[in-house]
Structures are given as C-alpha cells and as structure tokens.
C-alpha cells in the first residue's frame, strides 16, 4: 500500500496528469504532516483508498477506483474529495464506503458496484450512474445537490436507506435500475425539479 505521507512530513502537488497505482491501494495516514495542493489531474488505484486525515481536501481533479476485486473507500473525517469515479471491471467488483463521504463536485459510477454500506454520501454536484448503486442498510444515505441520472446499462440494489436530490431525477432508456423495499426518495429545495422516466421497465 502507498502511505501518504510515509515516514516523514511530505508535500503533494498535482494540477494535471495521472498518478496511477496499478497494484496497490492508497492510505492517507495522520502520522506526519502532509501539505496537499491538488487542483487537477487524476489519482487512480486498483486497491482501496483509505483516509485518516481531516485535511485532505482537493479542489480539482478526481479519484478513480478501477480494476478487479472488492475494495474500501474513505477520506477521513473533516476531509473530502472533489470528483469521484467508480470504474471497476464488473458489477461484481464492489467499492464499499466505510466512512461518511463529502464530494465537493460530482459522483460518477461508470462501472462496478458502489455500496453506500450504511454511510452518508453527500454530493455537491451531480450523480451519474452507468454501473451499479447498492443501498441495503437502513442507515444508508445519498444526498445530491443537483441531478441524479441513471444512464443506459445502469443497475441498482436499493432496498433501504434514503436518497435526496434538488435537481432532476432521470431514468434513461436502457437502465435496469429500480427502487424497491423500504427506501425513501426525497426531492428538496425551492426550485422546480423533474422526475423523468424514459425506460418502460424502470
């Protein structure tokens, strides 16, 4: 696993390019000081992305979890991520949220299975889902400031928890997603919102 920082104080500056960990995860530990200035670029890993810091707050770029296998995701209480991309190989490859998440921009579930896992995920922008979203525990909560869009090929295992949004909710033609069980969907805010169902099976 890649430790940020390692065995001494460190700095991390990224405003472009790709930092790719092809065979290990990333651990944001709080043993030493870390000066983090991330305004762009991509941080991607095939492993887990685990945070224990309260000062990891990128203002650009995105974190991508990709590849085979099940992994875990957190960023540390008080920290956050800008954009998050879930891009696992198949819907059987799961990313489990193990701590509440704050996303300062967008969430993109491109492929694989994002399991909210009883935590709260707050998204300041849009949530676009082409892969799978799972919410099976009552304490699972997804709060999206703008739109939630289920794109063609998307699917879900949503049987519990709460979802809120302030923009539009769209089932695109070709989605396999549906809400079942005891989950609650809430439309918030003072502006008009649209509930769009373009798929006959959604």
Lay out the secondary structure.
Layout: E1 2-4, E2 10-21, E3 26-28, E4 34-45, E5 49-51, E6 60-67, E7 71-73, E8 83-88, E9 94-97, E10 101-103, E11 107-111, E12 113-115, E13 120-123, E14 127-129, E15 132-135, E16 141-144, E17 148-150, E18 155-158, E19 162-165, E20 169-171, E21 184-187, E22 195-197
3D structure, described in words:
This protein is mainly β and 202 residues long. It has strands at 2-4, 10-21, 26-28, 34-45, 49-51, 60-67, 71-73, 83-88, 94-97, 101-103, 107-111, 113-115, 120-123, 127-129, 132-135, 141-144, 148-150, 155-158, 162-165, 169-171, 184-187, 195-197. A 9-stranded parallel beta sheet has the order 2-4-6-8-11-14-17-20-22, with no helix packed on it. The chain is globular, with a radius of gyration of 17 Å. The model has no long low-confidence stretch (mean pLDDT 96).
Report the total helices: 0
Rounded to the nearest angstrom, the radius of gyration is: 17 Å
Strand content: over 45%
Report helical residue fraction: under 10%
